[in-house]
Amino acid sequence: MCGSVTIKSSVVEEQDAHFLKMSICDTGVGIPYEDQDKLFKLFGFVSSTQQYNRNGIGLGLMISR
User: Fold this and answer.
1) Which residues are within 8 A (CB) of 1 and not within 5 positions of it... i.e. 6 or more apart?
2) What gap in Å lies between CA 31 and CA 48, rounded to an integer?
3) Any bridge partners for residue 22, and if so which?
4) Beta bridge partners of residue 18, listed in sequence order
5) Could you report the average pLDDT of every consecutive run of 10 residues in the chain (65 residues)?
6) Rounded Cα gap, residues 23 and 18, in angstroms
7) Following DSSP, what letter does each residue of the chain receive, concatenated?
């Protein structure tokens, strides 16, 4: 099973100001609510992705902070 991530951007003009509009569409497996608190913990794994990534080292989003 695999998904994709699509990122789109555009410039929007409103009342003499320019804004960058970003939209992101993620069709991946998702993360259950009860596992979302593990996202930024070192060596944390979520139960729904263990079957997809057995070789990970568990750094996840911790390194992006």
Assistant:
1) 29, 52
2) 7
3) 9
4) 13
5) 87 94 88 76 59 55 61
6) 16
7) ----EEEEEEEEEETTEEEEEEEEEE-S----GGGGGGTTSTT---GGGTTT-SS--S-GGGGG-
